[in-house]
Amino acid sequence: MSFPPPPFDDSAVVRRSVNRLARRMRAERLPDSLPSARLAVLAQLYRGGSSTPGAVAAALHVQPQSLTRTLAALREDGLVTRSRDEVDGRQYVLELTRSGFEAMARDVGYRDAWLRRRMAAELNETEVAVLRLAATLLDRLAADDTADTADTDTQVHGGSDPNTDADADAD
């Protein structure tokens, strides 16, 4: 059976490269590192501050129900706290603990060190500068744009479920 070659348009090339690096970064981890879902929640709370579970789920582009076990494990391990929202007592607010920050920083630091070594071994100064510019552009592309996302999800997936992307990664 013969299949067509993979597409080589700009978006396909970028997608493949980003996914390949993301897979490699997930593989470069300490033996006792946090599971990816837990690390994603801790990183979101670190970047965005205290938040409701629903807001964390929205920021991570997952359904709130899919975080239930992850949040319970993080609370049980003392990596996050959960308390009633002072403004809306029906809501809970999650907060990163010192232990949660330290666990996240250890995991991220290990992966950053791996990437730093690879960049030093493989790239010259100009290529590092180009990669840094590319990182800024990728962040811009990854930023939420609800109008564009809704149209694209409908065209590609026939709906607007962000969980249909098999290559989705938290950070």
Automatic annotation (TrEMBL):
Protein name: Transcriptional regulator, MarR family
Residue span, HTH marR-type domain: 11-143
Gene3D superfamilies assigned to the protein according to its UniProt record, in alphabetical order: 1.10.287.100, Winged helix-like DNA-binding domain superfamily/Winged helix DNA-binding domain
Xref: InterPro entries: HTH-type_Bedaq_tolerance, HTH_MarR-typ, WH-like_DNA-bd_sf, WH_DNA-bd_sf
Species in which this protein is naturally found: Actinacidiphila yanglinensis
Residue segments, region Disordered: 145-171
Pfam family, one: MarR_2
Domain of life of the organism encoding this protein: Bacteria
